[in-house]
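Example (one chain per record):
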Amino acid sequence: MAGEKVLSYNDVLLRESDLDILRGPYYLNDQIIEFYFSYLSSIYPLNDILLVPPSISFWITNCPDTDSLKDFLEPLNLSDKNLVIFPVNDNDNVAQAEGGSHWSLLAFHRKGNAFIHHDSSGGHNNMHARRLFKAVVGFMGSHRKASDVMYIECKDSPQQVNGYDCGLYVIAIAKVMCCWYQSDESKDKDGLWFSAVRERVSPGIVAEMRNEILDLIKSLMVAKQKGRP
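Predicted structure:
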């Protein structure tokens, strides 16, 4: 059954319908992105990296009240994070859960004092990414003024070749960024990860991630049945 629960991982509940999306190929929903972000947080358990769940990212983007947003963001300890990764969705209807038709990724890099937007569809989500940037930039705890923090649209971010893999590009780029940050890999001249993303994110690699994520979920299901953490 489509609604049957198949895995509870950290705070994320996956159902058979989520696996159907991965088998698809279909546009990824919030649950799959949140699951993989949670998984990345487990394999890269660094206190200064934060992968923000889609629902929280969406709420930050659309919160109308600054005071409420301040209280909401406090537990995230953004001022302690050197790398923060936000999924961006083009849903404009706050009353519609899991709406929208395109995902992209916005990342804050403290050392570079910049937010960088990766969009696999030629800047489709630029307006929504800028809205998120403007909403959150004043809460990052930078010693510099919020007006000094740069917003960069990554012009050569890998591009999708169909209408449904945007969420996979978000996941793939987030994975590369976490690996890049933890390792001693050489950095670009501006100290960023663009070269690593160009080398490791391509349409072929992204397409393979559907099966990679399915296999990961199945292995976690087996481990849970055997009583392993």
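Caption: The CA atoms of residues 84 and 172 lie 15 Å apart.
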